[in-house]
Fold this protein.
Amino acid sequence: MGEHVPATGTARGNSSRRARVEPEQIVEGIEEALTAARREEPWPERMQLPDAVEELSSWLEDERQWSSAHTSNWVSLMNDVISAIRVFGPEAQQATESSSLCDRLEECRAMFNSLESRLHLPWQSI
């Protein structure tokens, strides 16, 4: 009929061959896992171009960014895009005509900075 299962082990009766794990080993394993989970990769010095372009595209499509974002956030994002483009050097910028994009972003950034300085209210510095 069915296979006999011993009361002290598995169907094959190999429970006595299993290695016994000591509580200290379990604790050490948990501590190692927690330590490894804490290690985060450092943020890159600058945003990578695909990430910067994707972020800018999502902001341009997001109505909330147009209606309630701070100008300093837009300026920061434009700085990220410009930096990501400039990493490739002048030759690549010329080949891709991205230097004109940088120029336009710099103009937008200047407008945002100008707007922010005109709209700066005294209670914002508190």
